[in-house]
Design goal:
Blueprint (H helix, E strand, L loop, with lengths): L1 E3 L3 H15 L6 E3 L27 H9 L3 H11 L4 H13 L5 H30 L9 H7 L5 E5 H4 L4 E2 H7 L6 H9 L3 E3 L2 E2 L6 E2 L9 E6 L3 E8 L1
Parallel strand pairs: 1-2, 3-9
Antiparallel strand pairs: 4-7, 5-6, 5-8, 8-9
Length: 236
């Protein structure tokens, strides 16, 4: 039997049982656990676990997991999880030490592991989704991807009837969904050029949002400023 070093007791109990019951020899093999610098292990019982199966962990969330690697773990994980040669790892280690804000080591780690698990297409879509979080266009993304990317941002439900016909005035929609605390604040935000619907800047307070603006009839993404996203779920 093979397993992590924390399973040593279980494995040796098994080999002892086989010896006593069957009179046969059995072997156990263990290896050191992969842990973070703080001692948290990789494992399916841990919070934030990533899976190779895209049905369990999407390529986007898989990529984000590696991209968010702590500086203290980055070099060790480059050695453990990538196929980079020594010179490449040393180059990234130097970059991490001299320009940690650039996160070159984490980007290289995320790109290499995601590419080998999910292919070039999976990596491309993961990078596209990451760009969206920092103000990139939503063009080409489907409803399932939108739901995944914005799973952790504030969200609000809006009845489909509110967006039917002439739709909902943008000032009303911003206040109703909590993007702004009031219509007055919504007006100031729009006039200041800081409101976006699906990545496109709202150019006037007279703008209305209709079902035609939705992504597959299911979602709208409202953004205030560069990073304050709100997901609108169309219901009913």
């Amino acid at each position: 039997q093979m397993g992590g070093s924390d399973q040593w007791g279980n494995i040796t109990a098994g080999t002892d049982l086989i010896r006593r019951v069957k009179g046969a020899r059995a072997w156990g093999v263990v290896w050191p656990l992969m842990t973070t610098a703080s001692g948290v292990k990789f494992g399916k019982t841990e919070a934030g676990t990533v899976w190779l199966d895209p049905e369990r962990t999407s390529p986007f969330r898989f990529y984000q997991f590696w991209l968010n690697t702590d500086d203290a773990d980055a070099v060790r994980w480059l050695k453990a999880f990538t196929l980079f040669d020594r010179s490449r790892v040393e180059e990234l280690e130097t970059a991490l030490a001299t320009e940690p804000a650039g996160r070159a080591a984490q980007r290289a780690l995320a790109e290499d592991v995601t590419r080998r698990v999910h292919g070039e297409d999976g990596l491309a879509r993961a990078r596209k989704a990451t760009d969206v979080l920092f103000g990139g266009t939503l063009e080409g993304l489907g409803a399932a991807e939108i739901a995944d990317i914005f799973a952790d941002v504030p969200a609000a439900d809006v009845p489909r009837t509110h967006l039917s016909g002439e739709g909902r005035p943008i000032l009303d929609l911003l206040a109703e969904t909590g993007v702004t605390p009031s219509k007055g604040e919504a007006r100031r935000a729009v006039e200041g050029g800081g409101i976006y619907v699906n990545g496109v800047r709202v150019d006037g307070i007279e703008r209305s949002v209709t079902l035609d603006d939705t992504i597959e009839g299911r979602f709208l993404v409202l953004r205030r400023g560069k990073k304050n996203h709100h997901l609108v779920r169309v219901v009913g």
